[in-house]
Design brief:
alpha/beta; Rossmann fold; 2 domains; 6-stranded parallel β-sheet; 12 helices; 12 strands; globular; binds 7,8-dihydrobiopterin
Protein backbone atom coordinates (compact mmCIF):
# COMPACT_ATOMS: atom_id res chain seq x y z
CA UNK A 1 0.00 0.00 0.00
CA UNK A 2 1.37 3.46 -0.85
CA UNK A 3 2.58 5.68 2.00
CA UNK A 4 2.20 2.82 4.45
CA UNK A 5 3.66 3.63 7.85
CA UNK A 6 6.46 2.04 9.83
CA UNK A 7 5.28 1.93 13.43
CA UNK A 8 7.11 1.08 16.66
CA UNK A 9 4.80 0.01 19.50
CA UNK A 10 6.07 0.16 23.10
CA UNK A 11 4.15 -2.19 25.36
CA UNK A 12 3.31 -1.90 29.05
CA UNK A 13 6.32 -2.50 31.34
CA UNK A 14 4.29 -4.23 34.07
CA UNK A 15 4.47 -7.66 32.54
CA UNK A 16 5.44 -9.70 29.51
CA UNK A 17 2.94 -9.58 26.64
CA UNK A 18 0.80 -12.71 26.56
CA UNK A 19 0.86 -13.38 30.31
CA UNK A 20 -2.31 -11.41 31.08
CA UNK A 21 -0.39 -9.24 33.57
CA UNK A 22 -0.79 -6.37 31.10
CA UNK A 23 -4.54 -6.63 31.34
CA UNK A 24 -6.71 -4.91 28.71
CA UNK A 25 -3.85 -3.02 27.13
CA UNK A 26 -2.38 -6.32 25.87
CA UNK A 27 -5.55 -6.89 23.85
CA UNK A 28 -5.58 -3.25 22.69
CA UNK A 29 -1.98 -3.42 21.50
CA UNK A 30 -2.60 -6.70 19.70
CA UNK A 31 -5.83 -5.58 18.04
CA UNK A 32 -4.52 -2.15 17.02
CA UNK A 33 -1.46 -3.85 15.50
CA UNK A 34 -3.76 -6.27 13.62
CA UNK A 35 -6.02 -3.43 12.42
CA UNK A 36 -3.08 -1.39 11.09
CA UNK A 37 -1.31 -4.35 9.49
CA UNK A 38 -4.57 -5.19 7.66
CA UNK A 39 -4.23 -1.71 6.19
CA UNK A 40 -0.70 -2.36 4.94
CA UNK A 41 1.24 -0.66 7.74
CA UNK A 42 4.21 -2.32 9.38
CA UNK A 43 4.25 -2.77 13.18
CA UNK A 44 7.19 -3.74 15.37
CA UNK A 45 6.77 -4.16 19.15
CA UNK A 46 9.20 -3.52 22.03
CA UNK A 47 8.16 -5.42 25.16
CA UNK A 48 9.64 -6.95 28.35
CA UNK A 49 11.52 -10.24 28.05
CA UNK A 50 9.29 -13.31 27.98
CA UNK A 51 6.76 -11.48 25.78
CA UNK A 52 5.23 -13.50 22.99
CA UNK A 53 2.03 -12.82 21.13
CA UNK A 54 2.19 -14.48 17.69
CA UNK A 55 2.16 -13.33 14.98
CA UNK A 56 3.40 -9.96 16.33
CA UNK A 57 7.03 -9.00 15.53
CA UNK A 58 8.28 -8.47 19.11
CA UNK A 59 11.77 -7.44 20.23
CA UNK A 60 12.15 -8.14 23.93
CA UNK A 61 14.09 -6.01 26.40
CA UNK A 62 15.48 -7.12 29.77
CA UNK A 63 15.03 -5.19 33.00
CA UNK A 64 12.97 -4.98 36.16
CA UNK A 65 9.19 -4.85 35.67
CA UNK A 66 7.40 -1.63 36.60
CA UNK A 67 5.19 -1.34 39.68
CA UNK A 68 1.52 -1.22 38.66
CA UNK A 69 0.12 2.29 38.93
CA UNK A 70 -3.35 1.44 40.23
CA UNK A 71 -2.07 0.45 43.67
CA UNK A 72 -0.32 3.81 44.14
CA UNK A 73 -1.56 6.63 46.36
CA UNK A 74 -2.66 9.84 44.65
CA UNK A 75 0.40 11.75 45.91
CA UNK A 76 2.85 8.93 45.10
CA UNK A 77 6.19 10.03 43.72
CA UNK A 78 7.34 8.72 40.34
CA UNK A 79 9.00 5.38 41.06
CA UNK A 80 11.27 3.25 38.92
CA UNK A 81 13.00 0.04 40.10
CA UNK A 82 16.76 -0.47 39.63
CA UNK A 83 17.55 -1.43 36.00
CA UNK A 84 13.94 -0.64 34.94
CA UNK A 85 12.71 -2.41 31.80
CA UNK A 86 10.85 0.83 31.05
CA UNK A 87 14.13 2.72 30.74
CA UNK A 88 15.67 -0.01 28.63
CA UNK A 89 12.65 -0.03 26.29
CA UNK A 90 12.91 3.72 25.73
CA UNK A 91 16.68 3.57 25.27
CA UNK A 92 16.08 0.96 22.55
CA UNK A 93 13.34 3.13 21.01
CA UNK A 94 15.74 6.11 20.91
CA UNK A 95 18.32 3.96 19.14
CA UNK A 96 15.89 2.69 16.52
CA UNK A 97 13.65 5.74 16.12
CA UNK A 98 14.81 6.86 12.64
CA UNK A 99 13.49 3.60 11.13
CA UNK A 100 9.92 4.56 12.07
CA UNK A 101 7.34 7.18 11.16
CA UNK A 102 5.71 7.03 14.59
CA UNK A 103 6.39 5.62 18.04
CA UNK A 104 3.18 4.42 19.76
CA UNK A 105 3.30 4.19 23.58
CA UNK A 106 0.92 1.89 25.48
CA UNK A 107 2.52 2.32 28.92
CA UNK A 108 0.73 4.20 31.66
CA UNK A 109 3.96 5.65 33.06
CA UNK A 110 5.65 8.98 33.58
CA UNK A 111 8.81 8.29 31.51
CA UNK A 112 7.24 7.87 28.02
CA UNK A 113 5.18 11.05 28.45
CA UNK A 114 8.16 13.00 29.77
CA UNK A 115 10.37 11.81 26.87
CA UNK A 116 7.87 12.82 24.16
CA UNK A 117 9.73 16.05 23.21
CA UNK A 118 13.12 14.30 23.34
CA UNK A 119 12.45 12.22 20.20
CA UNK A 120 12.76 13.28 16.56
CA UNK A 121 10.22 10.60 15.56
CA UNK A 122 6.79 11.68 16.83
CA UNK A 123 5.65 9.79 19.94
CA UNK A 124 1.92 9.17 20.40
CA UNK A 125 0.21 7.74 23.47
CA UNK A 126 -2.87 5.71 24.27
CA UNK A 127 -3.71 6.44 27.93
CA UNK A 128 -4.87 3.08 29.26
CA UNK A 129 -6.44 4.07 32.61
CA UNK A 130 -8.23 6.95 34.28
CA UNK A 131 -6.52 9.42 36.59
CA UNK A 132 -4.66 7.70 39.44
CA UNK A 133 -1.76 9.86 40.71
CA UNK A 134 -1.12 13.62 40.58
CA UNK A 135 2.36 13.04 39.13
CA UNK A 136 1.02 10.99 36.23
CA UNK A 137 -1.85 13.44 35.64
CA UNK A 138 0.70 16.26 35.34
CA UNK A 139 2.78 14.28 32.84
CA UNK A 140 -0.27 13.50 30.69
CA UNK A 141 -1.59 17.07 30.80
CA UNK A 142 1.88 18.49 30.02
CA UNK A 143 2.14 16.23 26.96
CA UNK A 144 -1.36 17.31 25.87
CA UNK A 145 -0.43 20.98 26.29
CA UNK A 146 2.63 20.54 24.04
CA UNK A 147 1.13 18.05 21.56
CA UNK A 148 -2.68 18.33 21.70
CA UNK A 149 -3.22 15.65 19.02
CA UNK A 150 -0.80 13.00 20.19
CA UNK A 151 -2.60 11.77 23.29
CA UNK A 152 -5.56 9.42 22.86
CA UNK A 153 -7.93 7.86 25.39
CA UNK A 154 -10.37 4.99 25.23
CA UNK A 155 -13.43 6.99 26.35
CA UNK A 156 -14.59 10.55 27.15
CA UNK A 157 -15.47 9.48 30.72
CA UNK A 158 -11.91 8.27 31.22
CA UNK A 159 -10.39 11.42 29.68
CA UNK A 160 -12.56 13.59 31.94
CA UNK A 161 -10.90 12.11 35.04
CA UNK A 162 -7.74 14.08 34.06
CA UNK A 163 -9.64 17.38 33.99
CA UNK A 164 -10.04 19.61 30.92
CA UNK A 165 -9.02 17.44 27.95
CA UNK A 166 -9.43 19.10 24.51
CA UNK A 167 -11.40 17.48 21.68
CA UNK A 168 -8.09 17.19 19.78
CA UNK A 169 -7.41 14.17 22.00
CA UNK A 170 -9.38 11.37 20.31
CA UNK A 171 -11.31 8.64 22.10
CA UNK A 172 -10.47 5.44 20.24
CA UNK A 173 -12.88 3.09 21.99
CA UNK A 174 -11.67 -0.44 21.33
CA UNK A 175 -12.08 -3.26 18.88
CA UNK A 176 -11.85 -7.03 18.86
CA UNK A 177 -11.49 -9.68 16.17
CA UNK A 178 -15.15 -10.73 15.96
CA UNK A 179 -14.26 -13.85 13.98
CA UNK A 180 -12.88 -15.23 17.27
CA UNK A 181 -16.21 -14.79 19.05
CA UNK A 182 -19.24 -16.98 18.40
CA UNK A 183 -22.74 -15.69 19.04
CA UNK A 184 -24.58 -17.94 21.53
CA UNK A 185 -28.37 -17.69 21.24
CA UNK A 186 -29.48 -19.94 24.11
CA UNK A 187 -27.40 -19.64 27.28
CA UNK A 188 -27.20 -21.84 30.35
CA UNK A 189 -28.08 -20.47 33.80
CA UNK A 190 -24.70 -19.08 34.91
CA UNK A 191 -23.59 -15.48 35.23
CA UNK A 192 -20.09 -14.37 34.25
CA UNK A 193 -17.40 -12.09 35.68
CA UNK A 194 -14.12 -11.56 33.80
CA UNK A 195 -11.05 -9.58 34.81
CA UNK A 196 -7.87 -9.54 36.82
CA UNK A 197 -8.80 -10.80 40.30
CA UNK A 198 -7.85 -7.51 41.96
CA UNK A 199 -9.58 -5.12 44.40
CA UNK A 200 -10.09 -2.35 41.83
CA UNK A 201 -12.32 -4.75 39.87
CA UNK A 202 -14.87 -5.10 42.70
CA UNK A 203 -15.43 -8.88 42.49
CA UNK A 204 -16.96 -8.84 46.01
CA UNK A 205 -20.05 -7.01 44.71
CA UNK A 206 -20.67 -9.56 41.96
CA UNK A 207 -20.36 -12.39 44.52
CA UNK A 208 -22.68 -10.53 46.92
CA UNK A 209 -25.25 -10.18 44.13
CA UNK A 210 -25.19 -13.89 43.21
CA UNK A 211 -25.35 -14.82 46.90
CA UNK A 212 -28.69 -12.94 46.98
CA UNK A 213 -30.04 -14.35 43.71
CA UNK A 214 -28.78 -17.93 44.14
CA UNK A 215 -27.63 -17.90 40.50
CA UNK A 216 -24.20 -19.59 39.98
CA UNK A 217 -21.29 -17.34 38.91
CA UNK A 218 -18.21 -18.28 36.90
CA UNK A 219 -15.09 -16.09 37.22
CA UNK A 220 -12.33 -15.93 34.58
CA UNK A 221 -9.14 -13.88 34.72
CA UNK A 222 -5.61 -13.59 36.05
CA UNK A 223 -5.51 -14.62 39.74
CA UNK A 224 -3.46 -11.54 40.62
CA UNK A 225 -4.39 -11.37 44.34
CA UNK A 226 -5.24 -14.84 45.75
CA UNK A 227 -5.76 -13.43 49.29
CA UNK A 228 -8.38 -11.06 47.91
CA UNK A 229 -10.10 -14.03 46.20
CA UNK A 230 -10.11 -16.07 49.44
CA UNK A 231 -11.41 -13.09 51.43
CA UNK A 232 -14.31 -12.51 49.02
CA UNK A 233 -15.35 -16.18 48.99
CA UNK A 234 -15.02 -16.30 52.78
CA UNK A 235 -17.42 -13.37 53.13
CA UNK A 236 -20.12 -15.08 51.01
CA UNK A 237 -20.00 -18.82 51.88
CA UNK A 238 -23.37 -19.58 50.30
CA UNK A 239 -22.62 -17.94 46.95
CA UNK A 240 -22.08 -20.54 44.23
CA UNK A 241 -18.84 -19.27 42.60
CA UNK A 242 -16.33 -21.17 40.49
CA UNK A 243 -12.93 -19.95 39.24
CA UNK A 244 -12.29 -21.01 35.64
CA UNK A 245 -8.77 -19.59 35.22
CA UNK A 246 -7.18 -17.17 32.77
CA UNK A 247 -8.09 -18.54 29.35
CA UNK A 248 -6.95 -17.60 25.86
CA UNK A 249 -9.60 -15.70 23.94
CA UNK A 250 -10.82 -18.63 21.84
CA UNK A 251 -11.60 -20.80 24.89
CA UNK A 252 -12.85 -17.92 27.06
CA UNK A 253 -15.41 -16.80 24.52
CA UNK A 254 -16.76 -20.34 24.10
CA UNK A 255 -17.52 -20.58 27.83
CA UNK A 256 -18.47 -16.91 28.29
CA UNK A 257 -21.03 -17.09 25.46
CA UNK A 258 -23.04 -19.70 27.36
CA UNK A 259 -23.67 -17.28 30.25
CA UNK A 260 -26.99 -15.50 30.84
CA UNK A 261 -25.39 -12.23 31.76
CA UNK A 262 -22.06 -10.53 32.38
CA UNK A 263 -21.44 -8.54 35.57
CA UNK A 264 -19.03 -5.57 35.60
CA UNK A 265 -18.42 -4.14 39.05
CA UNK A 266 -15.49 -1.73 38.68
CA UNK A 267 -14.44 0.18 41.81
CA UNK A 268 -12.25 2.42 39.74
CA UNK A 269 -12.96 4.33 36.52
CA UNK A 270 -12.51 1.50 34.01
CA UNK A 271 -10.94 3.27 31.03
CA UNK A 272 -12.85 1.08 28.63
CA UNK A 273 -13.39 -2.54 29.64
CA UNK A 274 -12.47 -4.76 26.67
CA UNK A 275 -14.23 -7.61 28.41
CA UNK A 276 -17.48 -5.65 27.96
CA UNK A 277 -17.34 -5.89 24.18
CA UNK A 278 -16.09 -9.47 24.32
CA UNK A 279 -19.29 -10.38 26.19
CA UNK A 280 -21.46 -8.42 23.72
CA UNK A 281 -19.73 -10.18 20.80
CA UNK A 282 -20.89 -13.52 22.25
CA UNK A 283 -24.43 -12.20 22.68
CA UNK A 284 -24.14 -11.86 26.46
CA UNK A 285 -26.00 -8.87 27.95
CA UNK A 286 -23.79 -6.63 30.16
CA UNK A 287 -24.81 -5.41 33.60
CA UNK A 288 -22.32 -2.76 34.72
CA UNK A 289 -21.97 -0.03 37.31
CA UNK A 290 -22.53 3.38 35.72
CA UNK A 291 -18.80 4.14 36.11
CA UNK A 292 -16.11 4.61 33.48
CA UNK A 293 -15.93 3.10 30.01
CA UNK A 294 -18.88 0.69 30.16
CA UNK A 295 -21.26 3.67 30.56
CA UNK A 296 -20.33 4.62 26.96
CA UNK A 297 -20.72 1.07 25.69
CA UNK A 298 -23.84 -0.52 27.22
CA UNK A 299 -27.10 0.54 25.56
CA UNK A 300 -29.56 0.70 28.49
CA UNK A 301 -32.30 -1.89 28.15
CA UNK A 302 -31.11 -2.90 24.68
CA UNK A 303 -27.74 -4.61 25.21
CA UNK A 304 -27.64 -4.55 28.99
CA UNK A 305 -28.24 -2.40 32.08
CA UNK A 306 -26.30 0.35 33.83
CA UNK A 307 -26.53 0.24 37.62
CA UNK A 308 -26.04 2.81 40.40
CA UNK A 309 -22.33 2.41 41.29
CA UNK A 310 -21.64 0.08 44.26
CA UNK A 311 -25.31 -0.86 44.55
CA UNK A 312 -25.56 -4.64 44.99
CA UNK A 313 -29.35 -4.24 45.07
CA UNK A 314 -29.08 -2.55 41.66
CA UNK A 315 -27.13 -5.52 40.32
CA UNK A 316 -29.77 -7.91 41.68
CA UNK A 317 -32.72 -6.09 40.06
CA UNK A 318 -30.82 -5.84 36.75
CA UNK A 319 -30.14 -9.59 36.87
CA UNK A 320 -33.89 -10.17 37.18
CA UNK A 321 -34.43 -8.11 33.99
CA UNK A 322 -31.95 -10.06 31.81
CA UNK A 323 -34.73 -11.90 29.90
CA UNK A 324 -35.81 -8.49 28.50
CA UNK A 325 -32.63 -8.31 26.40
CA UNK A 326 -32.52 -9.72 22.87
CA UNK A 327 -29.05 -11.30 22.70
CA UNK A 328 -28.84 -10.64 18.95
CA UNK A 329 -28.75 -6.90 19.76
CA UNK A 330 -25.58 -7.47 21.78
CA UNK A 331 -23.78 -9.17 18.90
CA UNK A 332 -25.02 -6.52 16.46
CA UNK A 333 -23.63 -3.68 18.59
CA UNK A 334 -20.21 -5.36 18.71
CA UNK A 335 -20.24 -5.70 14.91
CA UNK A 336 -21.13 -2.10 14.18
CA UNK A 337 -19.01 -0.32 16.81
CA UNK A 338 -16.25 -2.63 18.03
CA UNK A 339 -14.87 -4.64 15.12
CA UNK A 340 -11.18 -4.50 14.15
CA UNK A 341 -11.97 -2.51 10.97
CA UNK A 342 -14.04 0.02 12.97
CA UNK A 343 -11.19 0.40 15.47
CA UNK A 344 -8.65 0.54 12.64
CA UNK A 345 -10.55 3.43 11.05
CA UNK A 346 -10.41 5.44 14.25
CA UNK A 347 -6.70 4.73 14.88
CA UNK A 348 -5.53 5.33 11.32
CA UNK A 349 -7.44 8.61 11.11
CA UNK A 350 -5.76 9.70 14.34
CA UNK A 351 -2.20 8.73 13.28
CA UNK A 352 -2.53 10.36 9.87
CA UNK A 353 -3.78 13.51 11.58
CA UNK A 354 -0.74 13.55 13.85
CA UNK A 355 1.66 13.21 10.89
CA UNK A 356 -0.15 15.92 8.94
CA UNK A 357 0.01 18.44 11.76
CA UNK A 358 3.62 17.73 12.80
N1 LIG B 1 0.83 0.36 35.64
N2 LIG B 1 2.83 1.56 35.91
C1 LIG B 1 1.92 0.96 35.10
N3 LIG B 1 2.14 0.96 33.77
C2 LIG B 1 1.27 0.37 32.90
O1 LIG B 1 1.49 0.40 31.68
C3 LIG B 1 0.12 -0.28 33.42
C4 LIG B 1 -0.07 -0.27 34.82
N4 LIG B 1 -1.14 -0.89 35.36
C5 LIG B 1 -2.12 -1.61 34.58
C6 LIG B 1 -1.83 -1.58 33.13
N5 LIG B 1 -0.79 -0.91 32.62
C7 LIG B 1 -2.70 -2.35 32.19
O2 LIG B 1 -3.36 -3.38 32.92
C8 LIG B 1 -3.75 -1.52 31.48
O3 LIG B 1 -4.50 -2.37 30.62
C9 LIG B 1 -4.70 -0.88 32.43
Amino acid sequence: MNNSLNLLFLSTPVGALGTGLGGGVELSLYNIAQALQERGHRVKVLAPEGSQLPPLDISTVTGALQVVAQTQERNAAIALPKNPVLGAMWEEARRQQDRFDLIFNFAYDWLPFFLTPFFQTPVVHLVSMGSITDAMDAAVLEAIARYPQRIAFYTRTQAATFGEVPETCPCLGSGIDLSLYEFCETPGDRLAWVGRIAPEKGLEDAVAAVAKTGIPLTVWGKMQFPDYWEEVLGNYPDAEVEYAGFLPTRELQRQLGRCRGFLMTPKWVEAFGNVTIEALACGVPVISYRRGGPTEIVREGETGFLVEPDSVEGLVSAIDRLPEIDRANCRRQAETEFSIPAMGDRVETWLRGVLKSD
